[in-house]
Fold this sequence. Notes:
The chain is mainly alpha-helical. The chain has one domain (about 5-125). The protein contains 5 helices and no strands. α1 (about 5-25) packs antiparallel against α2 (about 30-45) and α2 crosses α3. The model has no long low-confidence stretch (mean pLDDT about 85).
Amino acid sequence: MVKIKWASVRRGLLLSLILWLILREVAGDIGGVIGFVLATIIVGYRVNEGYKSGSIHGALVGMVGGIIGGSIILILYLIGLGDIGKQLWPVTGVIEATIVIILYAIVGAIGGTIGSAIKKVRQNST
Length: 126
């Protein structure tokens, strides 16, 4: 049974947001994706409990981040700022949003696994 370290997930969400904002300004949408992947790799590395734990924590960063981001976009639409919402996240339907959140979770899990693998290699090399 994997124990979820919610502090690591929260830090990963914050790091993901910061990297997404910075790298999106530098390199466009692909920079935002790179920032998200880097954040999940760092979360997997920092959890330090094996591949499964890194994968789960990375997936949680992706899912929770997608849900929070989707909720913010929904609020923007509801208060009449749909154009801003569409620029931030060009997903307009519930099914599309669900698919995107699942994809975030998959990419986050892959990033978390990569971070855990890097940690294992570093531990074994010392």
